[in-house]
């Protein structure tokens, strides 16, 4: 093991956990390892109350109108699948996504296209990966009354580029379409007000928000949750059942079938408390400043190019690098860790469609968070530069 602390720059994948979150998880298993939402003994009651508090904190964090609009899921992928497979579709219904979507916001729609005959269409981005509002408006107009859903990432995990959600929503609503936003990369890094955005659905991953792994969430408007089918029926999803029939429970219980990740749900409250104490605008600005150090340090290295706009402030905390064939991204990522404890991501980052469309094998992605330092960013630049020279 290295004596120096690591420079953890893989935050777009999963974030590190504060002690308060770890303590909360441990507290559940040691002191109150009961069954929330079912048992009325002291363990179960404590768990139920704690989960209710966590749900309320999430609702406040996203400015949701009702705490009952917050559904716990396994991750943003689960949330997006709940949306895609929980709504009613007609053959020919049009769904618009961008050309930079994570598989979580692409594959469910492709699956519906294969199985139910919806019409999935892709809105192409500008050359620098920024959103092309003109192309989006044209796609909406072409779809016309068939436009059922606009589903797009708030911030791309490929490049850190933000999508103009409010503008998109305004246009989509003119055509009567629903708007689903993949917030996996925005929830941890900026202020998000679902009411101000005007959207219908917002998916997020709690494991990217300082919280436990294997936990995410979905916010949706009450009237949509009331009419949406659950993709995980069973215990807790109904109020009663006979051999012939059943009655659905109200949201969020309807969508949280089976025994839940109680320790994770309880620890989510600690994670949100931690984030709430931060100024999310300051967090965003700090990440941009670190990205500037990384981007300025590597942009002129031969055989290396940055995905997305040249201006680092338009890429949040993500610096994703395309490398020449002679620079294997996986090998360089391993070298960065082994030599200097710099931890980054290599590969196609679950955005296979974008890489395959352009013929790229993958990229090397450094992604910063509020706890990263300027020293972390400089260590990445220095070690990456040395690694490239070693392979040249």
Estimated helix fraction: 25-40%
Q: Give a short account of the largest sheet.
A: 7 strands, mixed
What is the count of β-strands? 15
Q: From the 3D coordinates, which CATH architecture of the largest domain would you assign?
A: 3-Layer(aba) Sandwich
- Which CATH C-level class of the largest domain is it? Alpha Beta
The tally of domains stands at 2
> Helix tally?
13
- Are there runs of 5+ residues with pLDDT below 50, and where? none
User: Which class do the helix and strand fractions yield?
Assistant: alpha/beta
Q: Which percent band covers the strand fraction?
A: 15-25%
User: CATH superfamily assignment of the largest domain?
Assistant: Type I PLP-dependent aspartate aminotransferase-like (Major domain)
Shape: globular
Radius of gyration: 22 Å
Tell me the strand order in the biggest sheet. Answer: 2-8-7-6-5-3-4
Determine the CATH topology of the largest domain.
Answer: Aspartate Aminotransferase, domain 2
- The rounded distance between the terminal residues' Cα atoms is 28 Å
Topology as H/E string? EHHEHEHEHEHEHEEHEEHHEEHEEHEH
Overall mean pLDDT stands at 96
